[in-house]
Design brief:
Layout (H helix, E strand, L loop, with lengths): L3 H11 L14 H19 L7 E7 L6 E3 L4 E4 L5 E3 L4 E2 L1 E2 L3 H9 L8 E4 L3 E5 L7 E8 L3 E2 L5 E2 L8 E2 L3 H15 L5 H17 L12 H5 L10
Parallel strand pairs: 6-7
Antiparallel strand pairs: 1-9, 2-8, 3-9, 4-5, 4-9, 7-8, 10-11, 10-12
Helix pairs in contact: 1-4, 2-4, 4-5
């Protein structure tokens, strides 16, 4: 299985710079650049779709009084087009996106029906409080896109032996794009390879959500990326 070190060694070989024997633990400029590079590439790939391998389910059990519940520690975002469901009925709760609307609900004497909820970044607030014994569930995308050599999940690369949960070749291709972009080099060919690989993986992955491509073909032909990848 491809590791951080082997992926970055392939990148270095392609762009004709000395192959590193260690990345994490090294303090030279190139190693620091490569560490930043592969993390930015991984984060970008994770954000392109609701990948099956990163899809998780969280559950909440009501007690009749608690209204605020923390999201899981690896929570990155809600899976697109899902929402929060009450098991048993099943019944979908209504999401309140606007803070002003949420404040209005709080001022009402009668609680809304069906119940509503709002996401506040690191917790979800419900109105009214989920009844005692009621189980709610929702799909979310995990931020744990990295595994260490003991297969423990984590959010970022911290060791040369770490692996990427998603496709390693896709990660390598995007690292090449990023490297050349940041060095002011032509990356049209690498961009084309990356977009083609990404499109194939999107087709294969049945849990994917439709997203706008990061690639502007005209911009790619002009060797200009519409925005810095990974930011």
């Amino acid at each position: 299985m491809a590791t951080v070190l082997s992926i970055l060694q392939n990148v270095c070989a392609t762009v004709a710079i000395p192959l590193p024997t260690v990345i994490f633990g090294a303090t030279d400029r190139t190693s620091l650049e490569l560490k930043n590079l592969i993390q930015a590439a991984a984060d970008t790939i994770v954000d392109t779709a609701d990948w099956n391998l990163l899809n998780s389910v969280a559950t909440i059990t009501g007690d009749g009084t608690t209204t605020d519940f923390d999201v899981p520690s690896d929570f990155k975002r809600f899976a697109a087009g899902t929402g929060i469901w009450e098991r048993g009925f099943p019944r979908k709760l209504r999401s309140v996106e606007n803070l002003a609307d949420w404040r209005e609900y709080q001022l009402r004497i009668v609680h809304p029906f069906p119940p509503v909820y709002r996401f506040f970044g690191d917790y979800i607030s419900f109105m009214p409080a989920p009844e005692n014994g009621i189980i709610l569930s929702y799909d979310y995308i995990s931020a744990n896109s990295v595994r260490d050599n003991f297969n423990n999940a984590k959010t970022t690369f911290t060791a040369d032996t770490d692996t990427f949960v998603l496709d390693a070749r896709l990660l390598e291709l995007l690292c090449l794009v990023l490297w050349k972009q940041r060095k002011g080099l032509d990356f049209t060919s690498e961009l084309s390879d990356y977009e083609a690989k990404l499109a194939r993986l999107r087709t294969i992955d049945s849990g994917i959500r439709p997203v706008l491509s990061h690639c502007n073909p005209r911009a790619a032909q002009a060797n200009i990326w519409p925005e810095v990848i990974g930011e």
